[in-house]
């Protein structure tokens, strides 16, 4: 369903605002060369994780992706989690990039979703190109509330575990190839003991020829690459390119989402649900483990640090392992000039004084970002954005989360955009169409 979400976001994006959109063959211009995961053009963080090489100005606009690293993340604290307004691509200094509001709780990380926000997303800084990835988690409960543990490539190859908050005995499995919507790929494992009340171990074992999904050590689904041949596309519709691990909680049941998505999510989110505690819905991730497999035999390798694509077919044989640098010098830099800007240059958000600058953090501000979700998110006091120009963070308080007494940003893969940034500068900030819609909605809630 996350796959469907990208389409949804893309279709909503151009409606109201002239943020530069990309996707479906429409490439970004040279001065904002990177096409974000959400189909908007920018620089800086737009060129990092999620950057879509095919719809960017050129394949090289997207920054090389840090290679897989085997590790277990215990989430005993939030030290490895860095907001997307601060991450410039150094995976040795951060494990996860966040949007929204992760919280530490009793040796686990809570992904929260307060009223008026679009939840929380954690994306791994390292990519995985085949590996065994496990997560021990309990889901959020409630209509319209979706918890996800997925692998998502810049190619939009995708392997999912998803949990709808009204089906507490089920886990849905799914996969997508290059973001092509195929409603026949979904699976539904039932008979689980309450996935909200109980932690379960979910595992995706992703190999070049098979994917298995397991729950508590028991295989619940197997997919063979051989069974995915698509003669039209002349390739296997099988996830085959490097993916980030994404953990998220998002509102499938927002009235601004498509009817199909709302129904799938079990109805509209209720912002006064008993499932909200301390003013927010939450999913709890206790541990994530990543065991990398060796690169496939025949992989084009000239190094050991980063993945790049050398062809826009985005199939397994177009991935190359290089020693290319993964770190931008500033939020003004791109894969085309990684040293552009100086280190003190900040994340630019629209709505700030620097209105002519290209967007630099997807979802942080109206413009492109807003479209889906991923916005800056930390709490007011730590000045989340790398700069004073960021109108994104903190402003969430103005959105409705204020009423909950909980300070946080919005943003996540959820799809809409950050309910965040409304605050005092709404005029300047209201740029993305979906963003605007969400803001309006939130405004109503607040009033
Ligand atoms: C999964 O199965 C359960 C139990 O049969 C059912 O209630 C639920 O609607 C199913 N969900 C989907 C998405 O098919
Ligand atoms: C096969 O690939 C074509 C072209 O990408 C796509 O339109 C179609 O939906 C795919 N079919 C399936 C079953 O995935
Ligand atoms: C890519 O996948 C094909 C099957 O479609 C396989 O034969 C080939 O070995 C793979 N190459 C790499 C580098 O993974
Ligand atoms: C490996 O990558 C290089 C550089 O992009 C390219 O020139 C070469 O053709 C690739 N080799 C294979 C076997 O794909
Ligand atoms: C990259 O950016 C730096 C700093 O802005 C600039 O000095 C340099 O000329 C740029 N390089 C290229 C190749 O454009
Ligand atoms: C907000 O950030 C400050 C500084 O990082 C921290 O001390 C405080 O606990 C945070 N508050 C919340 C609610 O996360």
TrEMBL record:
Residue spans of biased composition, Gly residues class: 364-376
EC category: hydrolase
Topology in membrane: Lipid-anchor; GPI-anchor
Entry annotation: catalytic residues: 158, 162
Any GO MF annotation of the entry: endochitinase activity
EC number: 3.2.-.-
Occurrences of domain GH16 (ranges): 58-273
Annotated spans, Disordered: 343-412
Signal peptide start-end: 1-18
Biological process according to GO: carbohydrate metabolic process; fungal-type cell wall organization
Compositionally biased spans, kind Low complexity: 343-353, 377-405
CDD domains: GH16_fungal_CRH1_transglycosylase (cd02183)
Alphabetical list of Pfam families matching this protein: Glyco_hydro_16 (PF00722)
Catalytic activity field: Random endo-hydrolysis of N-acetyl-beta-D-glucosaminide (1->4)-beta-linkages in chitin and chitodextrins
GO cellular component term, pick one: fungal-type cell wall
Subcellular localization(s) per the UniProt record: Membrane
Sorted UniProt keywords: Cell wall biogenesis/degradation, Glycoprotein, Glycosidase, Glycosyltransferase, GPI-anchor, Hydrolase, Lipoprotein, Membrane, Signal, Transferase
Family per record: Belongs to the glycosyl hydrolase 16 family. CRH1 subfamily.
Function: Dual chitinase/transglycosylase that plays a role in cell wall architecture. Chitinase and transglycosylase activities are coupled. Required for the polysaccharide cross-linking at the septa and the cell wall. More specifically, transfers chitin to 1,6-beta-glucan in the cell wall.
Protein name: Crh-like protein
Organism: Knufia peltigerae
């Amino acid at each position: 369903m996350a796959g469907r979400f990208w389409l949804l976001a893309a279709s909503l994006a151009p409606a109201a605002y002239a943020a530069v959109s990309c996707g479906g063959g429409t490439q970004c211009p040279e001065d904002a060369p990177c096409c974000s995961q959400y189909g908007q053009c920018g620089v800086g963080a737009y060129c990092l994780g999620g950057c879509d090489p095919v719809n960017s100005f050129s394949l090289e606009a997207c920054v090389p992706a840090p290679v897989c690293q085997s590790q277990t993340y215990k989430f005993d604290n939030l030290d490895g989690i860095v907001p997307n307004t601060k991450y410039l691509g150094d995976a040795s200094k951060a494990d996860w990039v966040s949007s929204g509001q992760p919280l530490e709780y009793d040796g686990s990380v809570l992904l929260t979703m307060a009223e008026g926000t679009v939840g929380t997303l954690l994306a791994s800084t390292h990519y995985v190109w085949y590996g065994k990835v496990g997560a021990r988690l309990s889901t959020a409960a409630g209509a319209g509330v979706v918890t996800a543990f997925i692998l998502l490539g810049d190619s939009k190859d995708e392997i999912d575990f998803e949990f709808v908050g009204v089906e507490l005995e089920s886990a849905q499995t799914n996969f997508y190839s290059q973001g092509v919507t195929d409603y026949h790929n979904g699976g539904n494992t039932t008979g689980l003991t309450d996935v909200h009340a109980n932690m379960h171990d979910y595992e995706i074992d992703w190999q070049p020829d098979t994917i298995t999904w397991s729950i508590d050590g028991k295989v619940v689904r197997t997919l063979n690459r051989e069974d995915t041949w698509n003669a039209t596309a002349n390739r296997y519709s099988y996830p085959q390119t490097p993916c980030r691990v994404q953990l998220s909680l998002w509102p499938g049941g927002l009235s601004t989402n498509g009817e199909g998505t709302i129904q799938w999510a079990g109805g509209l989110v209720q912002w006064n649900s008993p499932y909200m505690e301390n003013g927010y819905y939450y999913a709890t991730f206790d541990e994530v483990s990543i065991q990398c497999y060796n690169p496939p035999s025949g992989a084009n390798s000239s190094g050991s640090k980063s993945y790049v694509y050398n062809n826009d077919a985005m199939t397994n044989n177009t991935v190359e392992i290089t020693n290319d640098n993964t770190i931008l010098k500033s939020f003004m830099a791109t894969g085309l000039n990684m040293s552009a800007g100086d280190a003190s240059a900040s994340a630019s958000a629209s709505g700030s004084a620097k209105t002519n600058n290209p967007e630099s953090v997807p979802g942080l501000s109206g413009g492109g970002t807003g479209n889906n979700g991923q916005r800056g998110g930390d709490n007011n006091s730590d000045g989340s954005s790398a700069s004073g120009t960021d109108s994104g963070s903190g402003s969430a308080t103005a959105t409705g989360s204020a009423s909950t007494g909980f300070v946080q940003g919005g943003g996540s893969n959820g799809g809409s955009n950050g309910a965040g940034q409304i605050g005092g500068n709404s005029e300047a900030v209201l740029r993305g169409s979906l963003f605007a819609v969400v803001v309006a909605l939130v405004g109503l809630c607040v009033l």
